[in-house]
Structures are given as C-alpha cells and as structure tokens.
Amino acid sequence: MRALLVVNPRATAATHRARDLLVEGLGSDVAVAEAVTEYCGHGIALARRAVEGADGPDPALPRCAVVPCGFANIFARALGVPNHPLAAVERLIGALREDRCRTVSMGVAGERYFTFCAGLGFDAAVIRRVERLRSAGRRSTAGVYIRSALREYVAGASGRRATISVHLADGRELPPVVLAIVTNTTPWTYLGPRALSPTPLAAFETGLDVFAMTSFGAVPAVRSVLRLLTGSHRVADPRWSVALHDLSEFTVRAPEPVDFQLDGEYLAGRDEVHFRAVPGALRVVV
Fold first, then answer.
1. Which of 28, 108, 134, 243 is 20 to 30 A from 183, comparing alpha carbons?
2. What is the pTM assigned to this prediction?
3. Bridge partners of 252?
4. Which secondary structure element, helix H or strand E, spans residue 260, and what is its range?
5. How many angstroms separate the CA atoms of 193 and 268, rounded?
6. Of the candidates 109, 114, 110, which has an alpha carbon nearest to the alpha carbon of residue 44?
7. Who has greater pLDDT, 36 or 258?
8. 55 and 165 co-located in one domain
C-alpha cells in the first residue's frame, strides 16, 4: 500500500517529531512519501496527483486520513479522531490494519470543496484578523480568536446592514442577513474544549445547513454567543436569525464583496457563492 503524507507546516502542532512518528508507525504497512505544502492551494494540487496514482479496491474514491496538528482540528474531531497527533497516529495505524473506513459528504463552494464549514461576513472577518497576526508570528490560541472577534465587532460589525441574500434551490429567498455560516457537520468550531454548534443537526450523512443572522446588534450578538457557549440546541432565534437544515444547494449573494472563509481559511471577498452538497464524496480511514 502507498500513501502520501501532506504536511501543512503552518499547523500549530505540525512538528518534525509528530511527522517522524507517523512515518515510522506506518512504515511496516505503508510506503509513505512526504510532501510539505508551500503555498495556498498546494495541498489541493498534491492531493490531485495522489488520486491520479491511487490504488486499492476503489481507485475512483481513494482513502484519506487526517492527523490533527492545528488549533481547532474540527474535521478530525468531528470524525472522532483523538485531538492529539500521537494518539491520532496510533488510531490511524490500527484503522489501516483493520481496514476501518467511513464515507462522508463534502460541501462545494464555487469550485472549492470543504469538509466542515464556510462563512460569509463576521466569522470570515475574524479569521482574516487572526491570519494577519499569525503572519506576524503569533500562535493561534483561544485568546487570539476572542480578542480578534471583539475588535472586529467594535470596528463596525455590530452596525453592519443586512445586505447578504440567500437564494434557495426552490426559488425562495431568505430575508437579508448580516452574516451566513454554512456547515457540513457539527460543531461549527471549538473554543478550547467547548464545541460551538449553531447548526446542531448538521451531519456528514445529510446535506448542508445554514445559520444566518438578520441583525447583529448587541442583544442578538450577546444572546447568540451565550447560547453557543452553553451548548443550547436553540441558538437560532426567529427574531434575529434563520436556521436551515439538509440543503442540497443554494446561492449566497451580496451587492459588494464580503469576507469569505472556507474550512477556517480566509479566501478574500466574494459577492456570490454557489453552495452544493456532495454525498459520499470522501472515504476516510478512522
């Protein structure tokens, strides 16, 4: 069996020690080649080349695995992978030997696939701030995200007008919203050990879910955050938010580009994004 180990050197815990242990642990079962990403989108190119040379019982849907080395590790944790590189490596070795796989859905935003979430508006703007700090040498921590969120809110997010529109496949259009979060699973993110789930019904076995806010003033923002932090299954309040479950496709539009993120990666402004769900898109070793 052959495998390509794609390493993101910017991941918080992507140390040489963790990489060496992974290669060493897989060595007796798998011929491992290693590649380090060098620019945005490089991982996609590496994965495409790996798929072209895939072997196994179903080369059209090759197996993949994830070892969490980042800050939140949302995709890995949603799959039940231990949130520590070494523990995840041990689980991966056992899963390969026992041929344990799970087929999961993915989302597509425009031409880009995503595993757990996308966002337009406030959450993407927060990620933009965090990525600037990381480029300056700061590490990702819960404190960095909280301070970035507060600064973004004070800088004007609270007064933003609801100009984003969500157009459903059946022709319906939601009321104008300030921000939109699209999820392929739950949770949406983590704050330390605490899971934040504005779309608690989202799952890899269903379509896409949407949480959107029609107002982001002090009362809606504070009450929504408190419900997220307490794990409430009623984060969406009809007075200022909308929640949709199991959508096959829809389009989000804005009169001018708004901040956009995909799986926690900032992708600059977008004025239109078409989303669709892709069932059974990925075969994951777990």
1. 134
2. 0.90
3. 166, 273
4. strand 249-262
5. 29
6. 114
7. 258
8. no
Residue 97 corresponds to which tokens in the numbers above? 């030997």
What average pLDDT does the structure give for the chain?
89
Give the CA count within 13 Å in the CB-facing half-sphere of 33: 10
Q: What is the rounded CA–CA span in Å between residue 261 and residue 129?
A: 12
Of the candidates 105, 77, 81, 79, which has an alpha carbon nearest to the alpha carbon of residue 94? Answer: 81
Tens-place pLDDT, residues 40-74:
778 888 888 877 765 554 555 778 999 888 888 99
* pLDDT tens, residue by residue, 166-200: 999 999 999 999 999 999 999 999 998 899 999 99
- Tokens 């419900």 appear where? 227
Task: Fill in the DSSP letter of residue 236.
Answer: -
Q: What is the CATH number of the domain that holds 45?
A: 3.40.50.10330
**What tokens does 132 get?**
């600037």
pLDDT at 59: 54
Q: Assess whether 156 and 36 both reside in one domain.
A: no
Instruction: Verify that 95 and 120 share a domain, yes or no.
Output: no
- Count CB neighbours of 161 within 10 A: 10
How many residues are given for the chain?
286
Domain end point (choices 99, 128, 155)? 99
From 99, 133, 164, the end of a domain falls on 99
